[in-house]
Amino acid sequence: MHDNREPDQKPLGISGRTAKAFQSTEITPLLAIVGMLLGLLAILITPKEEEPQIDVTFANVFIPFPGASPVEVEQLVSTPAEQVLSEIEGVEHTMSVSRAGMSVLTVQFEVGITRQQAIVRLYNQVFSNSDWLPSNLGVGQPLIKPMGIDDVPIMSLTLWSDDSSLGSHELKKIAHNLEVELKRVKGTRDIYTLGGPDTAVRVTLDPARLSGFNISLDDLRNALQAGNTTGSETRVITDNTVIPVQAGDFLSTVEDVRRLIVGLNNNTPVYLSDVADITLGSDVPEQSVFMGTGPAFAESAKSGLYPAVTIAIAKQPGQNAIDITESVNKRIEQLKNIAIPDNIQVTVTRDYGETANNKSNTLISKLIFATGAVVLLVLAALGFRQALIVGLAIVITLMITLFASWAYGFTLNRVSLFALIFSIGILVDDAIVVVENIHRHLSMGGKSMREAIPLAVDEVGGPTILATFTVIAALMPMAFVTGLMGPYMSPIPINASMGMLISLVIAFVVTPWLALKLLKHDAQNNQTEAEHETANTKMLAFFRAMVGSFLQGKKGRKKRVALGVGIAVLMMVSVALPASLAVVLKMLPFDNKSEVQIIVDMPEGTPVEQTQRVLLELGEYLQTIPEVTHYQTYAGTAAPINFNGLVRQYYLRADPHSGDIQVNLADKGERDRKSHDIALGMRASLQQIGARYNANVKVVEVPPGPPVIAPIVAEIYGPDQEAMTDTAKALRARLAQTDGIVDVDDMIEAQAKKYLLQVDRQKASLLGVPQARIVSAITAALGGEDISYLHESHQKYALPIRLELNEADKSNLLQFMTLKVRSINGDLVALSEVVNLVDAQWEKTIYHKDLLPVTFVTADMAGELDSPLYGMFDLIGQLDDEPLFKDTPLEQFFIQQPEWPLVPSVKWDGEWQITYETFRDMGIAYGVGMILIYMLVVAQFRSYRVPLIIMTPIPLTVIGVMPGHALLGAQFTATSMIGMIALAGIIVRNSILLVDFINQQLAEGISFEEAVIQSGAVRAKPIILTALAAMIGALFILDDPIFNGLAITLIFGLTVSTLLTLIVIPVMYYAFAPQRIKDLDQTLSKV
């Protein structure tokens, strides 16, 4: 019997009716043109960024409690504040850091809650519960600082000079002027400068001169405050004219400050300059930045290390990063030799606009090449005109999908563009199936084009609609993955699903119109039925040989069993590959970035100058790495944060012992080594240098996806602080001994000395000196006090008049104690008379997370297995075999923290947590997708058994996926899992085409055996074409470090599953088809 048997006339379905309505109407080309124009509009107006913008909002609440110990801060401030903040709707975690005099609380909101929602809820909760603190306790007003993705600078400019006469103070003044100019660039948000000392009027006290003139520190404070006061402007009327009058004027010059009278000595005025040195200039630096150049720096003549400052620039939400950074660069060029002297260099040390532009241009070119490759595939298989139809259908579909993506709120970023490239292969499926069937019907002859096209579309319309929705059913559940990974990857399921719907409409509306216009030549040169059969003879013979042997009675049954056993063995071998470490499991592989960060933690108590010296020595080693273009060292402050720094809260690193080096590498096209290999290579040498100074040095790479606090995090809980500290130290030691684990650190502060200037209350009372006055004098002298401000014009930042001792007197406490305060009787009393110097220990910081005391141990994984999961589970196995403590058990938690830790406990976090949550949600999405697919197929075929047969190839994909990863030495990652989910929909689509064709042939009176054989022969071409199209799309993302798992899954999974589907589905359908199908075959055979 023949596959082109003339069917009984029956009404067209929705797809056939749609094709018939639009194949010759004038509105069809207009709709296509509108779709193209919408796509062009979307390309022009959609913001371009390198990474997806994720609504992840943090907020820090700073609550000062001057003089309180960490324990007092914890009990009176942090704990009640945590309880209040944890009640806020949408809060995922609350954390607190209780240190001497300050509570820092961090509120982490759930992903997806907008910044505005989070801030409103936080402010309402804080200030509606402001009575949680006892009145008059001395606790200050809470200061709320929200942080989100838009606080991450997209650009940083480092100002430096090889002119030795220019220091960081002069650079900072120029940077402040540039801030004003750059803020005028449309779309910019926060602009701030890091590094360099501030400008201040420094009033440096001389205790001996103060004592000689009988002047106290309080006298200076009172004189400065009283002498720098004016009243509000009033008015008088003179000669019928209103004249403004202002009482008093401000101190506006340094000379005004010097000439200020602060007291009388023997009826002679004592000027401030008599008892102190007054200078306007550089303040004592609390942070410093240096610029270093490496071997890959373009201006090799300028190699070296120079004082510097860095200007960080963030953008407003929804603005195009590329436009902003280009405008900033243009503005900088305009300001050179005007606001920027010619002896000052401005180096762009971060430009996420440029990287976004490069990435988007690369991906758009890949998108174009992928489209062209698919068109060439169709050209080779079907012919020029058919390829032209498919190419136009793809372009129109992509353009409308881009518009839909913009309307949904996505930006043009690496994930959304990769989603489109990945989608090429499945977006073209509908067009290929429809065009191939039109081509087949025209080749069969006997009908006019206007008759053949609707019939051809209608024949494949039902399975095409069903197949489209099965792919959507497989993909869409991924859009509901929670955590940071969900919105990060959401453009893939959403863009692909929107594209599938659009491609279906294009296939039924535009494709028939194009076929009618372009395939007239095919219709005029129809093959006869005999010629058509001759063209398919080889394919029929092939499938008769391949499939027919499985359909022959008992012999065929044995072959079917053998086929099933063989497939089962292959599946077991494939599944065993991850267990044998032939395939390594990891959340996401490392990307090849152009930056690496080095975090340095010196021992507590280290001054910023020593921290900077260590950073400079580390920098000297960086100058030997060939791929380094330049680097910036930051002491006492953090480098401009990236998304990783936002999540890890690096912006809070402002202690003198904190250091940071931002290393910039040559463009990846100009170096052989990837950034991960460079980071691995530099780690040992950097840590060796740091060890000489007891510094903890960590090499931090930009994470390829959503960041975590550290790749390996152990949260230590326990009944008391001592138990937690002992557990953390023991666990840290065990981590350091585990192979492959590096960058081990903990949150336990080192022992540090502290001086307590203890007031003798009884003696002070007898001498008439209030303790508050003594404390105020000590604080002002040692820490400096901004008494007032100099009202000088043309200053962006206020110029404080700072009262302080010089550094030499501060370090000599015996000399400092000669400083005098005035008693209530007017007598001067030396501090040494009422203050005792007591040695003490610095109280350590106390950490809480989600209302429980906690401490942290962190680490990273490097080496052959760079997946932190293996290092973590290796340690867990060690702990099971050799417990940390013989007498005290250690409880381990993997999902949630302990409710009440009565014994030492560890909750594993870090990459493990996000991996667990992501794969858990993807597994659920996979399951939901399978259920939806099953329900759709049940509804179409009205059978519970047929969907199971159709879905059989889904698990077979593992036979290609796992060996493919092993063959290429790739890790199985989250993107590989996305490919597995997508494969489910794609493979089911092929099965539906086969089963639907068998049913159609049976309805036309063809025997069951012949229908099974012909299904493969007739549907092989569209199935193989769509599979090859998907693989071609995947080939263009194979070289991406992050998405190559998706590409490998599609390429190898489709290769194996497509070949197996063409054999397994017909054979299984023959063996396990519903009885009503077999009954129909028996009835037809008797006719």
Structure commentary:
- The structure is a single chain.
- With 1087 residues, this protein is an alpha+beta fold.
- The chain is 52% helix and 18% strand.
- Strands 1, 2, 3, 4, 20, 21, 28, 29, 30 and 31 form a ten-stranded mixed beta sheet that branches.
- It starts with 13 loop residues before the first helix and ends with a helix.
- The N terminus is likely disordered.
Structure, briefly:
52% of the residues lie in helices and 18% in strands. The chain contains 36 helices and 31 strands.
Question: What descriptors fit this protein?
Answer:
Multidrug efflux transporter AcrB TolC docking domain, DN and DC subdomains, elongated, disordered N terminus, 31 strands, ten-stranded mixed β-sheet, nine-stranded antiparallel β-sheet, alpha+beta, 1087 residues, 18% strand, Alpha-Beta Plaits, Multidrug efflux transporter AcrB transmembrane fold
Describe the secondary-structure layout.
Elements: H1 14-22, H2 27-45, E1 58-64, H3 70-85, E2 91-99, E3 102-109, H4 115-128, E4 143-147, E5 155-160, H5 168-183, E6 188-194, E7 199-205, H6 207-212, H7 217-226, E8 234-238, E9 241-245, H8 254-258, E10 261-265, E11 268-271, H9 272-275, E12 276-282, E13 288-293, E14 305-315, H10 321-335, E15 345-351, H11 352-381, H12 384-408, H13 414-444, H14 449-475, H15 485-489, H16 491-518, H17 520-524, H18 529-548, H19 553-579, E16 595-601, H20 608-622, E17 628-635, H21 643-648, E18 658-665, H22 675-691, E19 696-701, E20 712-717, H23 721-736, E21 741-746, E22 753-759, H24 761-767, H25 771-783, E23 785-790, E24 799-805, H26 807-811, H27 813-816, E25 820-822, E26 828-830, H28 831-834, E27 835-841, E28 846-849, E29 852-861, H29 868-881, E30 891-893, E31 905-910, H30 911-941, H31 945-950, H32 953-968, H33 974-1003, H34 1008-1035, H35 1044-1072, H36 1075-1086
Parallel strand pairs: 7-24, 30-31
Antiparallel strand pairs: 1-3, 1-4, 2-3, 2-28, 5-14, 5-15, 6-14, 7-12, 8-9, 10-11, 13-14, 13-17, 16-18, 16-19, 17-18, 20-29, 20-31, 21-29, 22-27, 23-24, 25-26, 28-29
